[in-house]
Amino acid sequence: MRTNSFRPNAKASGRAFLFLGEDAFELVVKVILSIVFLSQFSLASDPVPAAKQKKPVALVGGTIHTVSGETISNGTILFDKGKIVTFGQTVNIPADAERVDITGKHVYPGLIDSYSNMGLTEIGSVRGTIDGQERGTINPNTRAEVAVDAESEMYPVARSSGILIAGSTPSGGLISGTSAALMMDGWTWEDMTLKAPLGLFINWPGMVYVQGGFGGFGGGGQMTKENWLKRRDEQLKSLRDAFAEARAYATAKKVESQRGVPYHQTDSRWEAMIPVIEGKVPVFVNANEVAQIQAAVTWAEQEAVKLVIVGGRDAWQVSNQLKAKDIPVIVQPILFVGPPRRYDGYDAIYSLPNKLREAGVRFCISGDGDASNSRNVPHHAATAAAFGLPKDDALKAVTLYAAQILGIADRVGSLETGKDATLIITNGDPLELSTTVEQAYIQGKKIDMRDKHKRLYQKYQEKYKQLSEK
Asked: Which pTM does this prediction carry?
């Protein structure tokens, strides 16, 4: 990540990974190749970030889905200076307001992808466009928002599916860093950041050894059980040590102004963890299997930190524990994954959100973590609805529930007076594949709805039109 600008203690935190171990000539060549490669995409859609709202806007005649309350037919929603002023069937519209007739259309709050590398990656095969992680395993001071590429082609594509907010999240290592709520429009990362930090991300080690297995379910690959257990225990110790260091640092900084107490040098790693250990910022833990989730819950209690489980494929098996401790789950992904084990039912993942709902566990639904697939978030929710999750809860899982878990429900996630005018206008249910998002507003700004996919669609439509005329 591009972190030099916010790392006061370079010795403690290291340099940005892009500049480590690179021969100068090789680096220059790679940068040039990256620029040449990217230039092919830079003008693909060329949407322009919107200007701030200059006058009141009234969307008139549509169906308003507030999500948190009633659905209003033939209604009007009025917003000004980026905030929702009022809505209903009878609204006093100011004389200077822009009236937009949306008869037959639907208004929903902008959808939220609560777990994504949005803004941190562009082209998987071009290293210079990937900025999602730092070297090393303990990087709590890595901040997602400052590494965001405001020119990414992923934003317009996501907007076209109704995604207006993304939980942009760093990856890699044991402690990856802090995530940010990113709006899908803006000239700079400062413009785009709705809230940061959302939480500190931790990748919990696998807890159960499986010979030849892989991933978060504790697979050991080709390692011997002895070596695997040793590595797991070292990772758990590193995690405990990091929090112990952060607590000691916080104590030292708190009392350094007292007479006789020496000044303690600032360390950006532990500085970033102070809000976490004070309970102001939650810890998001990537954990899927039962042993991982239970270990994370026990650890969070010992450290007295707020916990959110990400992934949570086995969360339904410990739902009583999660409900009792009010630990929410970001379920991801639902589509494009099979049963976690051979003996699990084919619908083990598809039905997970409804199992959590029935158990009273707070949850939301995100995509697979890849920015290029954020456009599929509504379809993940729709699949959960097809496997038992009530339709209203499926919509809330990518709007209000997501906002509540991310700590941004005071701004987005539902259509309420005083909240941000971050909303979409559609010709139907946004969870349906056939629905088109016709217009989006982010904090009252009318968004340019062009994107690369639409441009290519129009281009090849013209191609075949010309062929048919020959």
From this structure: 0.86
